[in-house]
Design a protein that fits this description.
By secondary structure, this protein is an alpha+beta fold. The protein is built from eight helices and 14 strands. Helix 7 runs antiparallel to helix 8.
Length: 315
């Protein structure tokens, strides 16, 4: 009899565990990556060695190729034959051999500014150190907090990838002093008078520097450099001017239209997403505020959704 009770208890526990897993909040979605192929060029031009007054251009075969050193860390050799007939090579490291999750919070301070804090986690599955974090700010006024051994600045808005809004970049200055390897994380803070909204974010890993050797690489190899295409990308919360000027009704509509996106990002569970979709209305806002803290505590929503909805209290 006791054995049967134990079996029934275990079956009940398994059922409840499966139910909890189905209804609990999924993990935040890691940063996404573009499909960037960096392979040896199949077609290339011969290099010009010199001009001969009789024979014209004397050419040579540069034999450009890309050689994988370590796939997990994204390290490659860009190799070719130089004008002197000797092998030349430049070490290149991809920026996307990294898996990252960003956790964000936003809280209004006593001086009416919002303090945005970010925990950037370099996951154990990464093959390289985190070397940079970027956050899009759709506002006029924003101030990043300086961090020791990080360069903090704004990306040029003439760059197509960073033309919308202001992009703040935190980049490691010296990896020998600051190392954010797999399984580690780092905190960043920005301040703004603008409330939180949905913004983009990007990261990069490894060493972005190319060590020159006194000779330009063949054009076909240089054309393989991805620029910013291999920087992983995703979404987080950040300051958005537009929301400060919105009416309560429009602000609620902004959030309602993004509930499915929040669910896709792992910020809200499938259990409560329909409820918020239905109740993000002016006449239901008190009910929303009443359950917001409990849903955060039970991990049915994340700090991102909490901050986005909590900002409505200022309306």
């Amino acid at each position: 009899m006791r054995f049967r009770i134990m079996i029934l208890f275990l079956i009940f526990q398994c059922f409840m565990g499966a139910y909890a897993q189905e209804n609990s909040l999924e993990r935040r979605t890691p940063m996404q990556k573009n499909e960037v192929q960096i392979e040896s060029p199949l077609d290339y031009s011969l290099g010009v060695l010199r001009e001969d007054p009789i024979r014209g251009e004397i050419k040579y075969d540069p034999k450009p190729e890309v050689i994988t050193i370590d796939k997990k860390s994204g390290k490659l050799w860009f190799r070719w034959v130089g004008m002197d007939g000797k092998t030349k090579q430049i070490l290149f490291q991809r920026a996307d051999a990294i898996n990252v999750v960003v956790l964000a919070k936003a809280q209004k301070s006593g001086n009416s500014e919002y303090v945005f804090s970010y925990v950037v986690e370099n996951l154990n599955t990464s093959g390289q150190e985190l070397s940079g974090f970027l956050i899009q700010c759709l506002c006029n006024s924003v101030q990043p907090k300086e961090i020791t051994n990080f360069h903090t600045g704004f990306m040029g808005n003439t760059l197509p990838d960073f033309s919308e809004g202001k992009w703040i970049r935190f980049a490691v200055l010296d990896s020998s002093k600051t190392s954010i390897g797999p399984g580690q994380n780092v905190n960043f803070i920005i301040n703004s008078t603008s409330p939180p909204g949905l913004v983009r974010t990007r990261v990069h890993g490894g060493n972005l520097r190319l060590m020159g050797i006194g000779e330009e690489m063949p054009t076909e190899l240089a054309d393989l450099l991805p620029g910013y295409k291999d920087w992983p990308y995703g979404y987080t919360i950040g300051p958005v001017d537009e929301l400060a000027a919105m009416s309560l009704t429009d602000h609620l509509a902004y959030l309602k239209s993004r509930v499915s996106k929040f669910q896709e990002l792992g910020w809200i569970s499938s259990e409560v997403a329909p409820w918020y979709q239905e109740n993000l209305e002016p006449n239901s806002l008190i009910l929303v505020f009443q359950r917001l803290q409990s849903d955060l505590k039970s991990e049915k929503i994340t700090t991102e959704v909490y901050a986005l909805i909590d900002a409505l209290r200022s309306k």
